[in-house]
From TrEMBL, chain A:
Coiled coil: none annotated. This is Glycosyltransferase family 1 protein. Residues 135-235 form the Glycosyltransferase subfamily 4-like N-terminal domain. The keyword Repeat does not apply. It comes from Algoriphagus kandeliae. The lineage of its organism: Bacteria, Pseudomonadati, Bacteroidota, Cytophagia, Cytophagales. InterPro entries: Glyco_trans_1 (IPR001296), Glyco_trans_4-like_N (IPR028098), Glycosyltransferase_grp1 (IPR050194). Keywords: Transferase.
TrEMBL record, chain B:
GO terms for biological process: carbohydrate metabolic process. This is Alpha-amylase. Residues 6-287 form the Glycoside hydrolase family 57 N-terminal domain. Keywords: Carbohydrate metabolism. The lineage of its organism: Bacteria, Pseudomonadati, Bacteroidota, Cytophagia, Cytophagales. GO terms for molecular function: catalytic activity.
Amino acid sequence: MRVLMFGWEFPPHISGGLGTACYGLVKGMVHHDQEVIFVVPKLWGDEEPLADFVNASDVTIDYREKKFKSIWKNLTYLEVSSFLVPYLGPEEYQKFTDYAIHDRADVDESIFTNKYQFSGKYGKNLMEEVSRYALTAAQIARDRKDFDIIHAHDWLSFPAGIAAKEISGKKLVAHVHATEYDRSGESVNPPVFEIEKAGMEAADHVVAVSQLTKNIIVNRYGIPAEKVSVLHNAVLDASIIKSKYEKKVPEKIVTFLGRITFQKGPEYFVEAAKKVMDRDDNVRFVMAGSGDLLNRMIDRVAELRMGHKFHFTGFLKGDDVDHMYAISDVYVMPSVSEPFGIAPLEAVRHNTPTIISKQSGVAEVLQNAIKIDFWDVDAMADAMFALLHYQGISKMFKELGSEELKNLKWEHVAAKLVKIYEKTLAQQP
Amino acid sequence: MRTICFYFQVHQPYRLKPYRFFDIGDDHYYWDDFLNRSVMRRVAQKCYLPMNALLLELIERHKGAFKVTFSFSGTFMDQMEAYAPDVLESFQRLVATGQVEVLSETYGHSLASLRSKEEFARMVDQHRDKIKQLFNGYTPKVFRNTELIYSDRIGEMVHDMGYTGILTEGAKHVLGWKSPNFVYQNSIRPELKVLLKNFRLSDDIAFRFSNKTWSDYPLTVDKFISWVNAIPKSEPVLNLFMDYETFGEHQWKETGIFEFMRALPEAVLSKTDFGFSTPSEVLGQVDAISPIHVPIPISWADEERDLTAWLGNDLQDEAFDRLYELEQTVRQLDDPDLIRDWNYLQTSDHFYYMCTKFFSDGDIHSYFSPYDTPYDAFINYMNVLSDFVLRIKQKKKEVESVE
C-alpha cells in the first residue's frame, strides 16, 4: 500500500512530540514494507530516508487548475478568524484584520503563482502556513496519483488532508495526537477547534492515540464512535537502559520531568511531596523542566518550607535527561490531561518505578505502574511512599516493565494501522 | 566645634557559582572564584585604590583635621587578601595614619543579630580577631551591624559585648520630628550611644550625586556647604554614612565624585563651623540627648528602611530558617572548612538576591544581583545549602564514630 501522509515536522527538527510519533509510525510502516509519501512544510535534508519525502516549500502551484480556487475559497474562513496569535501589537493587529477581511478574490493571482517558503514552526503566521500548506497538498495530490490513501496528522495538516482528498477523491484518515481541549483546558481556541472538527468530519476514518482522546473526539466534537479507532503510541527503542551515572545524595529521589504547565499538573506533585516529606525524611523531590508555572511552584515550595529537599533543575537536555531518570527512585507524571504521554515509558526503560495519572493515554497501555487521579494528592503521596519503602512493588515493576515494553513497538502499531486502512478502503462511501 | 562623621561601609559577598542539583553530594566548593575575583579587581581599580589614595592625600594635607571611618566585612577582608593585596596594603597605610577608625561588625556580614545571640557574638569575635590580625593589633570600639540593622534588643546585645556606641539609620519612621544630628542612647542600655545617619545629606552624595533628573543636580561643593550651614546651630553632629563603593563604582569617576571629595574637607573647614571626627571621638565629646526607641529592627536599605530587602517573602524565610537550623551543629563540630562556608553562606546578600520587591527598589536589587530572578537565586542557594547539610551530617558521623 502507498500512503500520502501529511505531517508538520519530522526528526531531527522537532519541537514537540508529534514529530517523534510520526517518525515511529513511518519506521513501523517501513518494517511492514508499506510505502509512505511523507509531506512536511519544510525539509532540512538531514532526515532519515525512511519515506519518499516531499518538501512543501519546493512545490510550485499551477494556479490554472480551477479546483484550486474553490479550495482556496473554502480555506479563507481560516484566515478571517485566525487570531490565534495572542501577543500582536495594536498596529500589527490592524494589519492582520485588514488583510483578513480583504476580499480574497483580488489577491488570488499573487497567492497562486509563487512557491511558498514555509517556516514549519509554530509561529505568528501559523494560520497562513496551514492554509497555504493545504493548497500545496492539493498540488501534490494532483501530481502524484500513485497513492491509495491519505493520512493527516493533527489539525495543522487537516486542511491539507481535506484538500488532497478533494482533488484526488482518495479516502482520508485523520490522526489525532492531541486535541485543543488537552492543550487549553476549557478555554479552547475556536478557529483551531473548527479546523479539528472539520478535519474529523471530512475524514473517512479517525485515529485517536488513546481511548481518552477518543472520548473527547466523540463527546466534544460529535464524531460517531464507530468512526474512531484507538491506536496507541509506542516506544522507538524498547531496550532497558543501564546507566553508569550514579546518585550523589544518600536520599531517595522522586522526580517530575516535563513542562511545568497547567496540562502537566505540577502543583499536585508539590502537594503530594509535602505529604510524603512530613512522614519521611529520607527523600528528595526534583521538578525538572521549565514552563509558565515554574515560579509559582518555587513560591509554593518555599511557602511549604521544603526548599531544602525539593529541587528545581530548570530545563534538562541531552545526557542530563537520562541521568535524571537513572538516579530517580520514583517517576511521577500527574498530568491533568495527556492524550498519550511517552515520558513514563522512558522511565520504565530506566527501570524506574512510575506513577501516572488516570487522565493520561499511556495509562491505558502501561500495566506495571501505579495509576491515580491527578487531583488525588493523598493517593499520589501514598503511592510515592509505597514505591519508596515497599521493595516488593518496585521490584515487580522493574522486572515486568521490560517485558511490557516489548509489546509497545511501533511495528505493532503500524500493523494495526494497515488494518485500519484496509477497513477504511473497503467502506462504501 | 560641631563635627562631621564620615563612615564608609566596605563589603563584598562571596557569590555562589551556578550550583546544580546534580552537584549536590558531589561538589563541595560553592564559590564563583572567577566572578568574585573579577568584581574585586574591577572595584579595586575603580574605587578602592584611587579613593584610598585620595583619602591618604587629604589626611596628610589637613594634618589631623580630616578623619574617616571604615567597616570591613570579613568576606571583604578574605577576598582582599586573596585577590587584592594591593588594596589591603593601602587600607593598612590609611589605618596607620591614626586618623582612621575601624568599626566592629559580624564576620560574615550576616543577619545573625536577628536570629541568635550566640552566633552573633561568635561572628563579632571572629571579626575582631581578623581586624587585629590585618591592622597591626587594632581593636575596634564602636559597632556597626550589617546594613546598619538596629533595634533596642540588638543594641542591648552590642552593649553587653562591651561596645560603647553603635551606628544606625536615622529612619524617618523612628525619628518622627526629631533630628538625626544628635547623639542618642539605647533605650534598654542607656550607656550605649547611638549615632544616626543623616540620610538626606548622605544619600545626596551616595545616590543622587549624578542623577540628572534631580532638581539639585549638579551637586557642587558650595551647594553642599550651604546645606551643611543650614543645619540649626543646636545640632552638633552630621553623620554621613555610605557604601565606600559610592566613590568610583556607583558614582563613576566621570561624574566628578572624586573632585567633589577632594575639595569638600577644605571647604568644610574654612566655610563652616564643622570639623571632622570619628565615632569614638564623637561619643567622647557629645552627650546623649535622649533615648531612642526602636522596638522593631530598622536598616538603611530601600525606601522602607526595614528588613524586607532580606527577609519576609517565602523564598527568603525558607532559606533563612533552613540555614539557622544548622547553627548548633556547625558550632559544635567546629571544623574550619565548615565554619568558613557557614560564615559565607550567612552573608545578607544571598537573601537580598531573593527579594521580590520589584516595584519600588527592584532596579537597585537587580543591579547588585548576579541572578536573573529571585527564583534562580533561591534555587541555587538551596542546592548549595542541601550539600552543606549533607557535609554536616557526614562530619557528625565521623566525629561520633571516633568517640
